[in-house]
């Protein structure tokens, strides 16, 4: 009997600036889906806490220290190369400016315009817009003239 492959846990971080911009990175050569854009992160190691994995990946890939992050949502996706369970975190508090430590490109984006994006990440953009801009619209209407 062929046993189904267990999903691989992946910790993914969305750095959210006060103006709503988020940080994306481009997958470097040599990885599956090289050239595709994603939110930074990577695989959780056996026995590792997911938030600890997120912090480790941000140091390794971008030289950024994530000070705090809250788990936001989860997505499972089956690629030809892997079955992944993505744990998306939102962070508003970090230290340092992103550096391209793995030779990858990165970009701060308001409306996300970089393409192509990893397929499992595409639905996130709509949810992210609701989180970023629906709240701003409410704030604007509260702060508008009476
Ligand atoms: N970081 C990240 N990974 C994602 C996203 N969306 C998505 O499907 N993934 C998938 O999650 C997995 C992450 O694995 P990775 O290869 O980047 O992990 P890693 O840095 O630990 O790689 P390594 O195998 O070189 O150690 C990949 O299969 C990737 O396709 C995303 O938005 N960000």
From TrEMBL:
Its EC number is 3.6.1.55. Keywords: DNA damage, DNA repair, DNA replication, Hydrolase, Magnesium, Metal-binding, Mutator protein. CDD domains: NUDIX_MutT_NudA_like. Residues 7-132 form the Nudix hydrolase domain. It catalyses: 8-oxo-GTP + H2O = 8-oxo-GMP + diphosphate + H(+); 8-oxo-dGTP + H2O = 8-oxo-dGMP + diphosphate + H(+). The keyword DNA damage applies. Pfam families: NUDIX (PF00293). Belongs to the Nudix hydrolase family. InterPro entries: MutT-like, Nudix_hydrolase, NUDIX_hydrolase-like_dom_sf, NUDIX_hydrolase_CS, NUDIX_hydrolase_dom. The keyword Membrane does not apply. Its cofactor is Mg(2+). Gene3D superfamilies: Nucleoside Triphosphate Pyrophosphohydrolase. This is 8-oxo-dGTP diphosphatase.
């Amino acid at each position: 009997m062929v046993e189904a492959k267990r999903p691989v846990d992946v910790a993914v971080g969305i750095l959210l600036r006060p103006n709503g911009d988020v940080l994306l990175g481009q997958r470097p050569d040599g990885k599956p889906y090289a050239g595709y854009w994603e939110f930074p992160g990577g695989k959780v190691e056996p026995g590792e806490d997911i938030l600890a994995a997120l912090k480790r990946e941000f140091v390794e890939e971008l030289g950024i220290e994530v000070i705090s992050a809250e788990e936001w949502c989860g997505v499972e996706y089956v690629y030809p190369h892997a079955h992944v369970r993505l744990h998306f975190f939102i962070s508003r508090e970090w230290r340092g400016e992103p550096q391209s430590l793995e030779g990858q490109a990165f970009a701060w984006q308001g409306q996300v315009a970089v393409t192509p994006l990893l397929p499992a990440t595409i639905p996130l953009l709509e949810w992210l817009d609701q989180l970023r801009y629906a709240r701003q619209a409410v704030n604007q209407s509260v702060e508008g003239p009476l």
